[in-house]
Amino acid sequence: MTKKTHDTPLLDELKSGPWPSFVEGLERLATDEEKPGADMMKDLLGQLEHSYEERRGFWKGGTVSVFGYGGGVIPRFSEVAEDYPESSEFHTLRIIPPAGMHYSTKLLRDMCDIWEEHGSGLIALHGQSGDIMFQGCTSDNVQPAFDALNKIGLDMGGAGPALRTSMNCVGSARCEQSCYDEVRTHRMIINGLLDEMHRPALPYKFKFKFSGCPNDCVNAIHRADMAVIGTWRDDMQVDQERVKEHVTKVGRKQMIDTVIAMCPTRALSLHDDDTLDIDNKSCVRCMHCINVMPKALSPGKDRGVTILMGGKRSLKIGDQMGTVIHPFLKLETDEDYETLMEFAEDCVDFFAENALEHERIGETIDRIGLANFLDALDVPVDPNMVNHPRTSSYVRTDDWDVEAAKWFEHKKATAK
Amino acid sequence: MSNAELPRRADEHGVPDPFPQMHPTLKANYGDWAWHDRPRPGVLHHMAHSGDEIWTVRAGTQRQMDLGTIRKLCELADKYADGHMRFTTRSNAEFMCTAADKTGPLIEELNAAGFPVGGTGNSLSMISHTQGWLHCDIPGTDASGVVKSLMDELHHEFTHEEMPNRVRMTTSCCQINCGGQGDIAINVQYTKPPKINHDLVANVCERPSVVARCPVAAIRPAVVNGKPSLEVDEKKCICCGACYPPCPPMQINGPDSTKIAVWVGGKHSNARSKPTFHKLVAANLPNNAPRWPEVADVVKRIFYAYKEDGRAWERMGEWIERIGWARFFEMTDLAFTKHQIDDWRGARNSLNASAHLHF
């Protein structure tokens, strides 16, 4: 006998309006009687309506996993299962998408077929960490669903106190502002540390994110324990003819108001012939002028990455942004990539050994002080790490000369 | 158990190689793009140094997608985009077309199927979206419903590029703020200490780790009705809800507690100014499912004041920095209260230590 659908007058109000409605999608799954997930979705809609009435959630966690892995499944058991028995188990599998979230329609269709057979038919593209979230699976079906996904080349993402699934922007695949190979870097670091994702043993979560330029389209500085941001250290590239075309098109006033006057370090000026005068030594690579004039301006040719560490959300000391740890690492040769990989491994090892339980690396750095963290990781200090030197005189400086000697030595060693 | 009965051991693929999935023109010109422009809202046109061109059509989705929705997107990708597509971090679908004249018919078909085309340039992109009542174990509200309601109201701003700069909005269903920082953020803000079910605490919660979780050390072990439990110093409690995930009997959600706050001026990009956090401008709004009209009213007041008064390329936070907070509260008819004076770590840095004033 066909299972009855619940009345959902509150959710029904979310079916109108021009934006695509998730409620309509849930209903399509619930009413497709041919499909194994239909009854589960009927009760899921019933429980969600109950949440809309009571204005609270009714899920609790638990322990569900697949063979050989310690994480990646988000277990959800219903607290109101007696009223909604078919969705009493509604687990999520977090699955890592191809880097940059590129899909062939074959892969998407294979994913759909698998989720039609083993799950509810509801897929989020994508979660905030960057996972494909296959939502709505019974405990018994978690292993067969994962096996099928694994056989088409997909793997489990991160959850709990572990390395988390990462993200990179579209980057080199379609953006002229990209300053490094985001796909290679993302896959090298995450796949090199995969054990930390699949067998959680860290004090708390650890996230990497990869943005091709300082526009930071994947929000790495705010959201990642280690943000890898593309940049350059030589002069930006200018096509002065296209600058002139831009001035002709928008007018001199708009050029001055929206480009020259908005440069954060006053590094731009307009010549009398409408070409651009750029003080590259004062440029901080903010991307603004390049964003306004993408045909005339582009990043320089000596490219690499800036590493910032310590970004996180509110729990428990409040939101924090990452701060600069490596102002510039060249990413060109295989050795350059190896150096970055070793640094990433060292950071995760340091985190594993030194962070307190439930502490993010940004909190660890705060607790011990940035200088101690740099010392432990053998990273030389750099003025780019601070907004300004300290303003408080309460510091002991009797080894100043030793530290100053290190500074001049390092400067000499890295002089081009 | 014999080996034959053991479950299958996974192939640890890790992050899949995207190149077999990538549109052939993107793959062929990887790392070699020259410039881009935007022929119309929702369409990006990229030119490679090789002379290859690609037109990308961006469409909004509901993120929580049923199989029918994904298969419909596949059908359109097969017809217009050589069998490939990608998603942005804000759950927009992108179709890469090798000829400009494919974009018009694709846009028509997307619109006919209910997918709005836009989210490019100086427009509102899709609101970043957490799990909410649909799947989270600690949610104060439903992300999908809030996002759907607001995107319905602001649909025109997704499909047109009429804003001073891009607008990135976020939602979060509790104060952990999974949705992240936004030009406008719509986040749950609890207003009451947790209500403790003392019968359950000893069995369900690891008490020392709950005590350790509190940001203001307001929780201490206690014996209540003869049972080991926890108690909260309600004078110290900041009602953040951090104790609730490790100890569900400390219920933080409730009709008198789960309210919604609106924050403005968060920014991820480094363009012009450094990245910023969003700032609190309204709180105690009702958690009024299914359409959250009070929240939509506040958001629209802020959104349209910025649209009206922001100068070209100013982000929300940069606009407010220019006009000053006094004028912001005047223009949006929102209250400035003592609760908006920060008293958390680093609070002193947010106070005005100058004679720079806006009148």
Can you describe what's shown?
The complex is a heterodimer of chains A (416) and B (359). Helix content of chain A is 37%, strand content 14%. Chain A has 416 residues and is α+β, with helices and mostly antiparallel strands. Chain A is globular. Chain A has 15 helices and 16 strands. Chain A folds into three domains: 1-157, 2-Layer Sandwich (Alpha-Beta Plaits), CATH 3.30.70; 167-233 and 303-413, 2-Layer Sandwich (Sulfite Reductase Hemoprotein, domain 1); 237-298, Alpha-Beta Plaits (2-Layer Sandwich), CATH 3.30.70.20. In chain A, α2 (22-31) crosses α3 (38-54), α6 crosses α12 (334-354) and α9 packs across α10 (252-260). Chain B is of the alpha+beta class. Chain B folds into three domains: 24-112, Alpha-Beta Plaits; 132-190 and 255-341, Sulfite Reductase Hemoprotein, domain 1 (2-Layer Sandwich), CATH 3.30.413; 195-251, Alpha-Beta Plaits (2-Layer Sandwich), CATH 3.30.70.20. Chain B is 26% helix and 21% strand. Chain B has ten helices and 14 strands. Chain B has helices at 24-28, 67-80, 103-112, 143-153, 155-159, 198-204, 207-213, 293-309, 316-323, 325-332, and strands at residues 33-40, 43-48, 53-59, 64-66, 84-87, 93-97, 169-172, 184-190, 195-196, 219-224, 227-232, 250-251, 258-264, 279-285. In chain B, the strands form four sheets. Chain B has a five-stranded antiparallel β-sheet, covered by helices on one side. Chain B has a four-stranded mixed β-sheet with strand order 7-8-13-14, with helices on one face. A two-stranded antiparallel ribbon of chain B has the order 9-12. In chain B, β5 (84-87) and β6 (93-97) form a beta hairpin. The radius of gyration of chain B is 24 Å and the shape is globular. Chain B starts with 23 loop residues before the first helix and ends in a 27-residue tail after the last helix. Classes of the chains: A alpha+beta (416), B alpha+beta (359). The interface between A and B is large, with 123 and 117 residues. β5 of chain A pairs antiparallel with β5 of chain B.
